[in-house]
Design brief:
- This protein is mainly alpha-helical.
- 77% of the residues lie in helices and 1% in strands.
- The protein contains 13 helices and two strands; from the N terminus they run H-H-H-H-H-H-E-E-H-H-H-H-H-H-H.
- Helix 2 packs parallel to helix 7 and helix 3 packs parallel to helix 5.
- The longest helix is centred in the N-terminal third of the chain and has 41 residues.
- The chain is globular.
């Protein structure tokens, strides 16, 4: 009878957690719909086919980066090096096509993702093995990876004319009206979401973020899981670098510079708790979409750049406040479920 009661209690906890995720993500969708609706009333051309395509393309790279970042943040860590990893991968992609114009696209994609995974492994090894705080490590590697990028580029710029047209078409082609790059992002988000929900190793990341010490005592290989979370973040940043080249064509060593702050903002706005243990990659992707839409909609509404940044800051603060309020409510509900 005790075992049955325990299973019922665990089932109740799962249902409560799922409801919290749903509330967070529905809130982002509502905010997104309201913003688009208000902007479209002000300027109907905002909902033109080209504008929608531009919004989707604009949020694609950020959504992929936010997916990897969400995996890391769920473990109660942060990866500030993703912008620099994107820049390294982007320059690798351009260099490969300069030296070997006939390379198949899948080979280039795998090479970019592999370079990102190596960078993520460096972060993960320092954090998991040496137990150095992630904030310190990734702040350091942010500058190290960017320095390597600058040294590699040596002021050189790679132009769209140097990249094969077949690769650049990835940035312009559509499937049923949806940009191919957006399809990439959707597949990445769905695969990451399925892994976190359906696999034990994915669910253990939430346990680590909720209480690393308890997770370690329960037999979870905390160091190994955190290591692979950073490898995943790095690999997705590498993939984002490849897609960056397909999207923009022209690049230099500054590609992705400062992007890490936008990525963290998308994750927090998307409802992933900055202290770990809760949230989803779906919310992070929606957060990326919301931030991109804000950047496109507010100028149409006549908002100055200052207030655009203030709006993003207010969203981050509101997301943290909502997360805290939901955490308190869930704690009360779980207490009543015992």
């Amino acid at each position: 009878m005790t075992a049955v009661a325990e299973r019922v209690r665990k089932g109740e906890k799962t249902r409560i957690t799922h409801r919290v995720f749903l509330v967070r993500e529905l809130g982002i969708v509502v905010a997104l719909v309201l913003l688009i609706g208000i902007t479209a009333i002000t300027n109907p051309r905002f909902l033109s086919a080209q504008s929608i395509k531009d919004l989707l393309l604009g949020s694609t790279i950020l959504a992929i980066l936010a997916t990897g970042q969400a995996i890391v943040v769920i473990t109660r860590n942060v990866d500030l090096s993703v912008g620099s990893v994107l820049g390294l991968s982007a320059f690798l992609t351009g260099t490969l096509y300069l030296d070997h114009p006939g390379l198949p696209i899948p080979v280039v994609v795998l090479a970019g993702a592999a370079l990102g995974a190596v960078c993520g492994a460096v972060n993960g090894a320092l954090i998991a093995a040496a137990r150095v705080p992630a904030l310190v490590v990734t702040l350091g590697t942010l500058y190290v990876f960017r320095g390597i990028d600058y040294q590699w580029a040596k002021g050189k710029q790679i132009n769209a004319a140097d990249i094969p047209a077949s690769f650049l078409h990835l940035g312009t082609r559509t499937v049923l009206g949806v940009p191919v790059l957006t399809v990439f992002a959707v597949v990445v988000v769905l695969c990451a979401g399925y892994f976190l929900k359906s696999y034990r190793s994915g669910r253990e990341l939430y346990a680590i973020g909720s209480d690393p010490a308890a997770a370690r005592l329960s037999g979870i290989a905390v160091g190994r899981r955190v290591f692979y979370a950073f490898v995943a973040s790095g690999a997705l940043a590498g993939l984002a670098g490849v897609l960056y080249v397909a999207r923009f064509g022209t690049l230099d060593a500054n590609a992705g510079n400062g992007q890490e702050l936008n990525v963290v903002a998308a994750v927090v706005v998307g409802g992933v708790a900055i202290f770990g243990g809760s949230g989803s990659v779906y919310g992070a992707a929606l957060g990326a979409m919301l931030l991109t839409t804000i950047g496109s909609a507010l100028p149409v509404l006549g908002t100055t750049p200052f207030w655009q940044r203030a709006a993003v800051g207010a969203l981050i603060l509101a997301a943290i406040g909502l997360d805290r309020a939901l955490s308190v409510r869930v704690a009360k509900q779980l207490g009543g479920a015992k």
